Amino acid sequence: ATDYNPQMIPRRTVWSFMATFGLIHTVTVVWLAWLLRKRALAITVAVFASVIAYSPASNLIFSSGVVLAERNLYLAVWVPAVVVGWAICYPPRGRQRLLAAVGLGVLTLVFAVRTVERVPEWQSTERILIDAFAENPENYRGHLRIGSLLFTAEDYTGSLAQALVAGEIFPDDPFVTLVTTRLALDLGYIDVAVREAERGFLGGRDYPKLIRSAVRARLATGRLEAAVDGARTGVDLHPSSPMASESYTEVLTAMSAAPWRLSFAQAHDDWIDRK
Question: What is this structure's pTM?
Answer without folding.
Answer: 0.75
